[in-house]
Amino acid sequence: MKKIVAYPLTALYFLFFGITLLAFHPIQWFCLRVFGYQAHKKSVDILNWSLMRCTHVLATRYSFANPHHIPTDVPCIIVSNHQSMNDIPPIIWYMRKHHPKFISKKELGKGIPSISFNLKYGGGALIDRKNAEQALNAIKDLALYARESKRSVVIFPEGTRSRDGKPKPFKIGGLKILLEHMPNALVVPISINNSWKLLRYGKFPMGVGTHMKLHVHRPIANSGEDHEALITEVEKVITETIKT
After folding, report:
1. Are 135 and 212 in contact (CB under 8 A)?
2. What 3-state DSSP class applies to 114?
3. pLDDT tens digits, one per residue of 226-240
């Protein structure tokens, strides 16, 4: 029954989703060109809040637990598991005080209203997965930018999305570069549960009645001593609270 109901609700969701992206594209352009970074950043925050609201059509609920005080005057490396593209809007919205910037594949940097504009001009890194040197240099540049501006970098070390919620082993290359070039950063692990259920049937129809949960774990200082041990600790912290 849920799958049958999901068809018309998914069509309605995509309508609202598309309208939202089209509406915010010129808003972002205007905010950035006329008022600069802060105005553009606020427009991106509201865009992602709106994208979350679009999923309410699918009876999606969100829970965000952050029992920790994370200072905003130091850069952060936000490390999370990755279950679907729907992981991104709540991270941007709930962690907005930390100015999260994403590492994305270069293909997303063009052709998608609002999303491509933000990825291209919002301070993130677009990487070519077929060009390791370019990818590593882009991540390094993003790390230096975040360190100087005291902003945050979000990384999904699994590399690709987990389509059944089961965590994949971390690929440590990109995260290791961030740790090397952000020695004063706080590492903030986040566990995401149930996001994959929005795509349990594929892209159409989408899942109905998903309760997406995000849990922020205790921040860990980057001591700069043993990056591989730190990555192992972060991976363990994240995966221990993922329920499949």
Report:
1. no
2. coil
3. 899 999 999 999 999
Domains in the chain, please, with CATH?
A: 2-240 (3.40.1130.10)
Judged by DSSP in three states, 100 sits in strand
Spell 35-58 as b/e; 16+ CB within 10 A means b: eeeebbbebbbebbebbbebbebb
Please work out, in degrees rounded to the nearest 5, the angle formed at the alpha carbon of residue 232 by the alpha carbons of 229 and 240.
Answer: 145
Q: What digits encode the pLDDT tens for the residues 31-86?
A: 999 999 999 999 999 999 999 999 999 999 999 999 999 999 999 999 999 999 99
Distance CA 89, CA 91 (A): 5
Element spanning 187, H or E: strand 186-193
**pTM exceeds 0.85:** yes
Q: Which of 111, 107, 124, 115 is nearest to 86 (CA)?
A: 115
> Strand, coil or helix: what is 106?
helix
Residues 27 and 43 sit within 8 Å (Cβ to Cβ): yes
Q: Which pair of structure tokens corresponds to residue 126?
A: 């677009």
Report the Cα 171 to chain-centroid distance in Å: 17
What CA–CA distance (Å, rounded) separates 86 from 51?
Answer: 9
Residue-wise DSSP of 117-134: HHHHHSS-EEE-TT-HHH
Cβ 136 vs Cβ 181: under 8 Å:
no
Give the CA angle between residues 22, 120, 104 to the nearest 5°.
Answer: 100
153-194 pLDDT tens trace: 999 999 777 788 888 999 888 999 999 999 989 999 999 999
